[in-house]
Design brief:
SH3 type barrels, 6-stranded mixed β-sheet, 6 strands, 3 helices, alpha+beta, about 40% strand
């Protein structure tokens, strides 16, 4: 299945344990492999605070998640990570 970038934008993003963390904002493309490498997620403000993501002065806090960490895309984007795993990965980076 193929999905266009503009169809992905604004979809809710959920962790594998069902927690809504934000919305899909865009994609990052690897120019060497010619493939999408990560999805950019705009975080809900309470989630950003909880996981320690840095918020810019203007705009929303965002994180990039490798596409291999996505389990599916339907009405929402579902990650392979549960909330605890997501929190650990953000703190480590």
């Amino acid at each position: 299945m193929q999905i266009r970038d503009d169809a992905l934008r604004k979809k809710k993003v959920m962790t594998s344990d069902g927690k809504h963390i934000g919305t899909a904002h865009g994609l990052e493309f690897d120019s060497e492999s010619y493939a999408v490498s990560t999805i950019i997620i705009h975080l809900e403000s309470d989630i950003a605070k909880e996981i320690g993501a840095k918020k810019p002065l203007i705009g929303k806090a965002e994180i990039s998640v490798p596409v291999k960490k996505i389990s599916g895309i339907t009405d929402s984007v579902v990650l392979r990570l549960d909330f605890a795993e997501l929190k650990e990965s953000v703190i480590e980076s």
